Amino acid sequence: MDPGYRDLIEALVAVADPDDRIRAVWLGGSIARGVSDAGSDLDVILAVRDEARADFETGWRDWLDSVAPILLAEQVPGVSGIFAATTIDCLRLDIVIESVRELAGTPYRTRLAVIDRDGLTDQIPAAEPEPGPDHDRIGALIHEFHRQQAIFPAAVVAREDWLLGVVAVHEMQRLLFQLFVACNAPLPPMGVKQWSSRLTAEQRRVLTELPQPTATRAEVIAAMLGVREAFREYGRRLTASVGVEWPDDVDAAVTAYWRRVSLVD
């Protein structure tokens, strides 16, 4: 990681240490798991007194400004007590605020104590085993694949909207990536920006070799046929390996439609 993160941690501790509302400070994320690298953020978890939680969260931006000069900052949408910030030096800092009484049910099980005034680390539950493949999730990805395949001939080819076609190809490639990841579960805990690490060597090769089209008829159709073939081949194989039934009737109906519009033989 950038050596500036050490200075950022020291600055945060210097602000947190005299603040009696803060009962503990932990490092979380990839640092706590021992796998941080140049792309990692600084993940910090704060435990504050129960009665101070609301006020502390309300004044989070002022508190953050006291730690370092901040370039960008926002509360993570739809989630209470989680904030993402970028410093003026483009260091990335994510902060989770928890009250002391929330610790027994915290989802953040892996953490390293920096300040722990009351021995609160002992209240953190042990990490639970990661679940295996989610059959509903896998089924939803296959459903979305066929839904978008049924749209492509009319929305892209008939309209000759090749810019939309480029987007459609990339969406199909993203769905294939998501299918690979879902079928690879359980995976070790990792950050959301870890993409290649979630794949096998063969899966990385498959995705890397898929054509990336420009907005022309020939390239868009060729690229869509390529990702369609890959999704159907690996989708059938992977779903069988994890006990999910491939929807042959749906696949046959979409393929028949593609034949009628002369996209496949």
Number of individual domains:
2
Strand content: 5-15%
Mean pLDDT: 95
What is the helix tally?
Answer: 9
The main sheet orders its strands as 3-4-5-2-1-6
Category from helices, strands and their pairing: alpha+beta
The dominant shape is: elongated
Give the fraction of residues assigned to helices: 40-55%
Textual characterization of the structure:
The relative contact order is 0.11. The longest helix is centred in the last third of the chain and has 26 residues, at 217-242. The chain folds into 2 domains: 4-123, Beta Polymerase, domain 2, CATH 3.30.460; 135-260. Helices cover 48% and strands 14% of the residues. Helix 5 packs antiparallel against helix 6, helix 5 runs parallel beside helix 9 (248-260) and helix 6 (162-184) packs parallel to helix 8 (217-242). The mean pLDDT is 95. The protein has 9 helices and 6 strands. The chain is of the alpha+beta class.
